[in-house]
Amino acid sequence: MILFLLVIDWCFFLVPHLFMLEMCGSSDSDGSQNSGSPPLQPKKRRKREDEGTSNTTTTTTNPNSELATAITKGASVLADALLANEEREEERHKSLLTLEEKRLKIEETKADLTKQAMDGLIDSINKLANSVLALASSSGKTSPRNQ
Question: Which mean pLDDT values do the consecutive 10-residue runs of the chain (147 residues) have?
Fold first, then answer.
């Protein structure tokens, strides 16, 4: 989620600056050249001449606005992917919690069964001991009579 917010913040920071660059670039009409780039004036003239000769109007797109649009779309796709990833992580976490709860219930059931088995064993040993004592006492009483 933090990465998602950073991407959105970055896009909202970058896109206005790109539009400002676009505005500054379109208001530069003194014909000066950037270092190493061809002049923009002949291209503008050709486009205007083409527009004058054709009946349809062609839309000229600024590379900065295309870049801003591409960045915005990329950020949107990235944000969607991050949200989908977070949803998958939440589902995985929920399933892990469910499995852990089931494991704890199984361990608790196992402990209860072991306790019941030990209680049953203790009861059986006590009954056996009582039976042996009863047998010993009854055979001790009958032995002196037989002599």
Answer: 63 62 51 48 51 51 83 91 96 97 98 97 97 90 58
Torsion of CA 83, 87, 90, 91, to 10 degrees: -170
Domain contains 52: no
Structure tokens at 21: 């660059």
Domain containing 1: what range? 1-22+61-109
| Measured torsion, CA atoms of residues 26, 32, 36, 39, in degrees rounded to the nearest 10 | 70
Distance CA 85, CA 87 (A): 5
- Number of domains within the chain: 1
Among 14, 25, 22, smallest CA distance to 72 is for 14
Domain membership of residue 115 (yes or no) is no
pLDDT per position as a tens digit, 80-99: 999 999 999 999 999 999 99
In a domain, 124, yes or no: no
Nearest C-alpha neighbor of 76 from the set 2, 146, 145, 7: 7
Cα 73 from chain centroid (whole Å): 21
CA distances from 118 to 57, 105, 108, 113 (A): 93, 20, 15, 9
